Amino acid sequence: MGLALIALEDGTPMPELFLDPSFVRSGGNGNFILSTSCNGYTPLIGLCGVQVCKDGYGAFYSIEETRIIIAISAFRDSTETNASALVQGNSALIHGHAKTSCSLPSSKYSGDP
């Protein structure tokens, strides 16, 4: 990215790397199809974030002591994305993985002794 910024500032030709179609398809120039971010490790009132491009998804999560909160976003007017379908399609996978792969320790928040 530094090379692209230098080219823009100096008015020199953009390096060929940044003009290659595979660079754009891999997320270059703000074309990330999936934008993710961890919103922290403490209890939140809500998650915030937005997908980077019109036909992309945003996946934002908070890792708390006894749970992981996930928020998925997509633009409603996109013909390529559907946030509800993404959530439904992955919900069983996430819950099944959590049941078979890990168990959370008892904590003061879960009501366990």
From TrEMBL:
<keyword id="KW-0808">Transferase</keyword>
<feature type="domain" description="Choline/carnitine acyltransferase">
    <location>
        <begin position="1"/>
        <end position="87"/>
    </location>
</feature>
<dbReference type="Pfam" id="PF00755">
    <property type="entry name" value="Carn_acyltransf"/>
</dbReference>
<dbReference type="InterPro" id="IPR039551">
    <property type="entry name" value="Cho/carn_acyl_trans"/>
</dbReference>
<dbReference type="GO" id="GO:0005777">
    <property type="term" value="C:peroxisome"/>
</dbReference>
<dbReference type="InterPro" id="IPR000542">
    <property type="entry name" value="Carn_acyl_trans"/>
</dbReference>
<comment type="similarity">
    <text>Belongs to the carnitine/choline acetyltransferase family.</text>
</comment>
<protein>
    <submittedName>
        <fullName>Putative carnitine o-acyltransferase crot</fullName>
    </submittedName>
</protein>
<dbReference type="GO" id="GO:0008458">
    <property type="term" value="F:carnitine O-octanoyltransferase activity"/>
</dbReference>
<dbReference type="InterPro" id="IPR023213">
    <property type="entry name" value="CAT-like_dom_sf"/>
</dbReference>
<keyword id="KW-0012">Acyltransferase</keyword>
